[in-house]
Amino acid sequence: TGAFTYDPGFTSTASCESQITYIDGDAGVLLYRGYPIDQLAEQGDFLETAYLLLYGELPTKAQKADFDNRITNHTMVHEQLTRFYNGFRRDAHPMAILVAVVGALSAFYHDSTDIHDPKQRMIASMRLIAKIPTLAAMAYKYTIGQPFVYPKNNLSYAANFLHMCFAVPAEEYKVNPILADALEKIFILHADHEQNASTSTVRLAGSSGANPFACIAAGVACLWGPAHGGANEAALKMLEEIGSVDNIPKYIAKAKDKDDPFRLMGFGHRVYKNYDPRAKIMQKTCHDVLTELGIKDDPLLDVAVELEKIALHDPYFIEKKLYPNIDFYSGITLKAMGFPTSLFTVLFALARTSGWIAQWKEMIEDPAQKIGRPRQLYTGAPQRDYVTIDKR
Ligand code: CMC
């Protein structure tokens, strides 16, 4: 008891004031610093979005050039950090590796961990945005047994990531600009999403004054779950399991069955009770990528399109306002680009790092913020006396 409300899952509790991201879940609107997500994804690039999230305004040409330059100065990781990878089994999930190596950054950069110094906060932010693609690509290379590929700083953010993932020594690798453009869009769509579970985790960890790199590692850990960032992986696995359009009704029935825990992965959202605006752009990007790669009849896409059609007309889904979310089409797109399923959530973490660090910075700079400390409703035993072990 006490003067507080019980709100499991924080469905009606605001934990902070924020000026970064606005969502109108009923209308299907998503704005970063006031700018609609579709305009940023169609017309901008990822580093511009990261700048916008961090600083609150779109950069001028000079500011953009300076920011891009600073980020590319930080893309390398310390050679000693590369040794962490060797401690993992080759079949480790790359998210397990990412949690560890992002956390390990906290042991490397002592000149950017004084959270009260705005300059150090900014260097920590840039280091994270710059190094996360390198760390993510290294996790991929490690699990497939290939040597790490160093960043190529004359490439765009997404193109450099493709290069680090798919270039092989002694072979010419040219980044396909259409794929780089699609990946840049995917990163923009995933960059921030206000106070979701992983962002709230980053803020909660940061509220104690913890090391910023360690706070982002906490966000990566939270994102891993299938109800959150792990959903893109789960959605693709589900489409593979369904396999063909004929099997869809069986899975729809399972999803509607109250006694069956099965859910249609990539459907439903805590905040969107309308079509997820990110899913719309994702669907188009998916078509662009498949067309570019000459994939005409992808059975997974057929299943996805049909599943969406059926679900959008089914009273269960209509009543519960369950629409496809961003993860529904992102899996098919990433798979077509050549990424293994186990890397999907890693790509999400890579993109979301820009939002996490912007939210962390906003929290640190907010004088109203104090250490996060939820209350509880105690439902355990009342006070009782200790019983010695021979009497139990
Ligand atoms: N398939 C079938 N039924 C569903 C689904 C689904 N995907 N999602 C929700 N429901 C039902 C649920 O059973 C419940 O029914 P009832 O009221 O009869 O008990 C009702 O809809 C409300 O669900 P909820 O779990 O109370 O809603 P929530 O806001 O807690 O959950 C969610 C949101 C995203 C966790 C959930 O919709 C879900 O598990 N979806 C599948 C996983 C997924 O795609 N997650 C990605 C989210 S978007 C990316 C991100 O933000 O990380």
TrEMBL record:
Pathway of action: Carbohydrate metabolism; tricarboxylic acid cycle; isocitrate from oxaloacetate: step 1/2
Record GO terms (molecular function): citrate synthase activity
GO cellular component assignments: cytoplasm
Keywords, alphabetical: Acyltransferase, Transferase, Tricarboxylic acid cycle
PROSITE patterns named in the record: CITRATE_SYNTHASE
Family assignment from sequence similarity: Belongs to the citrate synthase family.
Name of this protein: Citrate synthase
Catalytic activity: oxaloacetate + acetyl-CoA + H2O = citrate + CoA + H(+)
Biological process (GO), any one: tricarboxylic acid cycle
Domain of life: Bacteria
Organism this protein belongs to: Beijerinckia indica subsp. indica (strain ATCC 9039 / DSM 1715 / NCIMB 8712)
Enzyme active site: H269, D327
SUPFAM superfamilies on file: Citrate synthase (SSF48256)
Cleaved signal peptide residues: none
Annotated PANTHER family: CITRATE SYNTHASE
InterPro entries with a match to the protein in the record: Citrate_synth-like_lrg_a-sub, Citrate_synth-like_sm_a-sub, Citrate_synthase, Citrate_synthase_AS, Citrate_synthase_bac-typ, Citrate_synthase_sf, Citrate_synthase_typ-I
Family matches, as Pfam families: Citrate_synt
